[in-house]
Each structure stands twice: as C-alpha cells, then as structure tokens.
C-alpha cells in the first residue's frame, strides 16, 4: 500500500547502489573473490546504534562480524563494525548496512548530546512525525539507546516493549473551544497514572493560561509550553514569568515542560529553569553519521586506500579517562584497558544479541563519565 521496500528485497540485496552490481559482474567474470577484512569507520565521534538490523541483514551469509556494543561512544577513525569474509558474499549489502547504522547512530548521537545537555532534567523523544512512519520504531529505539527518558510514538509499545508517553495536542483544546473544559476533561478521562501536563499556549499567553490551569483544574502536575518561534520572543523570560506566577500561588511543585523546535543547545541553556524537554526534529531528523566501509586487508595483506588505516583493528578503552587506543587485532592488548570490539556473528550465525536496555545503560554510563571529567560542553556544543 505504501511506498516501502519490503523486508525480503532488503534481505536479498535489492537496495544496493548500482555500481555494486557492476562490481559483482566484473569479479565473477574474472574469477576473483578475495578473502577480505572490511571495517566501518567515521571521522567524527558518536554513539553506535543499528547493529541489530545490520546483523539481521548479514545473517545466513558466510561471514564473521565483529562490532562495538550498541550504545558505545566511538571516536574518529575507530572501527565500529568489522566484516571478515569473501568479498562477493557481502559486497551488495554495503548500501543497506551503512543505511542502518548511519541513520540509527545519527539519531542516537543527537539523543545522547541532548540528554547530556539536560543533566538531571528529563528529555522525551517527540519527533517521529518528522520521519516516514515506517521508521517510527527504528527512530524511537535509536533515541532510547542515546539516553532519552521516554518516547512518544505509540508503536514503540508493540515493537520495542517501551511504554510511550505524551501530554495533549492543541487539537484537543480547539475541539472543546475552551482551554479549561479541555483540561478538566483530560484530568477526568485519562488514566490516573499519567501525569497531568496541561498545554498552556493555545489562545492566550503562557502566563495567563498557566494561571487558568492551576486555578481551575483539580490536578495539574505540569504545564507545557509549545510556543511557536513566531511568538517566542525571549523564551527564558516567558518561562521565568510562568514559574513566578505558579510559585506565588503555592504551585511551585508544578513542573515546566518545554517543546517545539528545541535542540541540544537550547536544552543546555534552559535546563536551570525547565524540568523536562520534548525534543522532536533535532533528534528524529538528526544528520546521519557519515560512516564508510573500507577493505583494510585482502588475503592477509594490508591494503587500505589513501586516508584509511590498514589492518584489522581492536579498540581498547581506559574507562576512567574515557580514552581509547587502537592496535592491530592480533597484537597484545595493553594493560588495564578493555577491548570494545566483540564477535557478534560467526559464519553467518548470530552468536551475541543486541539488548536495547543494556545499550541505553551504556550510554548513560558514558554520560556520567563525561560529566565527571568536566567535558559536557565539549560534547554538547561540538
């Protein structure tokens, strides 16, 4: 019904760049199919994600796959994934493989940057409406790995087992034609376990609607500002004004939620006066990580092209300093450092699973180390 490439077409290599078809034809005609080591690297830092789909893509193909765990912070030129096998067995899957991990890692990286910027304040993923709906679970999974505290897309419950979160749209208030009636109906109908977060910028200014909400609705846990850019002015001053009006009415425990065009820099600058952020486009529409896949060994010989580093490599981490060291895979490991690259597939069989909760825990662990090292700005504003 929708213009979506089917799973079986992806699995069969249809979603490849045409030059891989020509490459297959040439190599087969000349009887060449070398044993190679191919590594996936980028020239930037990021959070690795998308390995789950990459493994499903390569499952059943006679290759070995090594990779960092999802949620791992990687640095420039470090291999996040390595394939060992006959080149023709996996050549045409490069396009789809990179698509999976470039996109997922881009979303996870921006989620990580945003949550790092937020400190102890909550960050919610609100952005799946900015992408094709077929990607909803993919986007939310990647954002969750990056460290967000909640996701808004309802499909996450079915496909990921993650409970979705949400407040209310302007459409609910407009449908009633009256803010107070809409807020009261929401408080009456919605499950009691759901926080009562009232949207306060539909028709009047935010201060006026915040006062209306707390003075006319039995339960208000939070207020949400989704103010469009054309009406924002100085958003810090607006939030400070709302907080003052809540405080003098004895409602200082009512939390303030900010959404609408928010990015990591905004979060960093406003986290002292905002309790939670709904972040949409900047996470869901994050630029992909510019990974490339390059052959670094052919039949046991070092062969990397210009700009790349030859040889199959391992990455070792000093977790206290969050510093890495790369060595050839076959070299002796340095003392006191942990290898980051692990074997995930052997001869086409997946031997290690990807766990989204463990990936998220790893992201959060690295955030804490970055905070302890005093390097938050370095990552948030880079």
Characterise the protein shown here:
The protein has helices at 7-11, 18-29, 51-58, 87-90, 94-118, 136-146, 155-159, 170-176, 179-189, 206-216, 229-232, 235-248, 264-270, 281-284, 356-372, 376-380; strands spanning 35-41, 46-47, 63-68, 73-74, 81-86, 122-125, 150-151, 197-199, 222-225, 255-259, 276-279, 292-298, 301-302, 313-318, 323-328, 338-339, 341-346, 349-350. With 382 residues, it is an alpha/beta fold. The strands form four sheets. A seven-stranded antiparallel beta sheet has the order 13-12-1-5-3-17-18. Strands 7-6-11-10-9-8 form a six-stranded parallel beta sheet. The longest helix is centred in the N-terminal third of the chain and has 25 residues, at 94-118. It is elongated and about 80 Å long. It starts with 6 loop residues before the first helix and ends with a helix. The mean pLDDT is 97.
Give Rg in angstroms: 24 Å
Content-based structural category = alpha/beta
Shape: elongated
Kindly report the average pLDDT value.
Answer: 97
Number of helices: 16
DSSP, total strands: 18
